[in-house]
């Protein structure tokens, strides 16, 4: 399992029609293609699947138990923490803090690096995660999700440090998300294409449902919070006006689809093409979405599926992080759609 590159080599996993492939078998098949692998990354991927099941269980019964609502606490992002945020964060921490594969973790919900307890062995990997993206939508039954990425450590041994967490997205060895909606789906990449698995609750297994996911080169849907239109910079407004201009020969106007839960919006974009945007605004000129917890993992997914991810001026996976909770503008989706957005943002058009 290799780290991401702009042109990744894929190891095909051959399945027969109607063959049931569990996520465990898929991971083992990928590991078998790399005789040098020790199995640590595979173990981390198994634990991601387990964490997804645990969170899905609570999300699916959120209306039946006293788990909805706010905790009264504000997180490092200045957002009110939901009860399920706390639960999801705890799931990630407690699942991964004792296995011996990680040296440090970073969470969108926690100010500082999360250290591995001293009584447990430290490993060679780093995990960063947004435990429950879009959690404020749970009360109205909108899809939410977990986003994560894995890196090899930079320091040689012992407890991990901030240096191990502040990384360039191109260094990711694996990334993915779990979307909790009408069904629970786990999508991930190890730099060899993108695979999607749907949870069968009757047997408690993630089953391969979307092998070798590839995005359309172009789409006719854009996903954007147009409520901020008066705060957009002129370049963004011009791009938006271009998408809304009637030109049947080029497939315009494009349709707007915006859920307000990043995982759900990106998941739809991955499946059907188009573009998901969270541009810079006059109120937030540095952008709003988090580089380490949202942009990097989703950017790796997009590139591995044949799409693009950009700030509007540079490739997201080329950015060297300088802060654990760094924010950036974001454009990601089908290659032609993102290229056009970049042309507007850089003044080419």
- Write down the CATH topology of the largest domain: Fructose-1,6-Bisphosphatase, Chain A, domain 1
Strands of the widest sheet, in order across it, are 4-3-5-6-7-8-9-10
* Topology, number of strands: 17
Measure the end-to-end span. Answer: 40 Å
Report strand %.
Answer: 15-25%
The appropriate CATH architecture of the largest domain is: 2-Layer Sandwich
CATH superfamily of the largest domain: Fructose-1,6-Bisphosphatase, subunit A, domain 1
Number of H- or I-type helical stretches? 8
Largest sheet, strands/sense/barrel: 8 strands, mixed
Low-confidence stretches are 1-12
Averaged pLDDT, please?
91
Q: What class would the helix/strand composition place it in?
A: alpha+beta
Helix and strand layout, with pairings?
Elements: H1 23-32, H2 40-60, E1 70-74, E2 80-82, H3 83-96, E3 102-107, E4 114-115, E5 125-133, E6 144-152, H4 162-165, E7 172-180, E8 184-189, E9 194-200, E10 205-210, E11 221-223, H5 234-244, E12 255-256, H6 262-272, E13 275-278, E14 289-290, H7 291-304, E15 308-310, E16 327-328, E17 330-333, H8 335-345
Parallel strand pairs: 3-5, 11-12, 11-13
Antiparallel strand pairs: 1-2, 3-4, 5-6, 6-7, 7-8, 8-9, 9-10, 13-17, 14-16, 15-17
Helix pairs in contact: 1-2, 2-3, 5-8
């Amino acid at each position: 399992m290799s780290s991401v590159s702009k042109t990744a080599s894929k190891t095909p996993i051959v399945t027969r029609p109607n063959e049931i492939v569990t996520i465990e078998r898929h991971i083992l098949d990928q590991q078998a293609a790399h005789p040098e692998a020790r199995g640590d990354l595979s173990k981390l991927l198994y634990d991601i699947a387990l964490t997804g099941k645990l969170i899905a269980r609570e999300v699916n019964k959120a209306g039946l138990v006293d788990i909805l609502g706010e905790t009264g606490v504000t997180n490092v992002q200045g957002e009110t923490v939901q009860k399920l945020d706390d639960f999801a964060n705890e799931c990630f921490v407690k699942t991964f803090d004792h296995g011996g594969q990680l040296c440090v973790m970073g969470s969108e919900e926690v100010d500082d690096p999360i250290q591995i307890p001293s009584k447990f062995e430290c490993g060679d990997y780093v995990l960063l995660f947004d435990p429950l993206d879009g959690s404020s939508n749970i009360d109205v039954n909108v899809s939410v999700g977990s986003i994560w990425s894995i890196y090899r450590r930079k320091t040689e041994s012992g407890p991990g440090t901030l240096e191990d967490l502040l990384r360039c997205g191109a260094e990711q060895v694996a990334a993915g998300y779990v979307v909790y909606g009408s069904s629970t789906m786990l999508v991930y990449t190890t730099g060899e294409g993108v695979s999607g698995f749907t949870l069968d609750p009757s047997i408690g297994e993630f089953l391969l449902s979307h092998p070798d996911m590839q995005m359309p080169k172009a789409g006719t849907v854009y996903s954007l919070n147009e409520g901020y239109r008066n705060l957009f910079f002129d370049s963004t407004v011009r791009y938006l006006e271009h998408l809304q201009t009637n030109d049947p020969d080029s497939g315009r106007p494009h349709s707007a689809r915006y859920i307000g839960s990043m995982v759900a919006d990106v998941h739809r974009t991955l499946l059907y093409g188009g573009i998901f945007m969270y541009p810079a605004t006059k109120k937030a000129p540095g952008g709003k979405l988090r580089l380490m917890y949202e942009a990097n993992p989703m950017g790796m997914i997009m590139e591995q599926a044949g799409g693009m991810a950009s700030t509007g001026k540079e490739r997201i996976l080329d950015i060297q992080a300088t802060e654990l909770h760094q924010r950036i503008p974001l454009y990601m989706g089908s290659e032609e759609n993102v290229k056009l957005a970049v042309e507007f943002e850089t003044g080419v058009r």
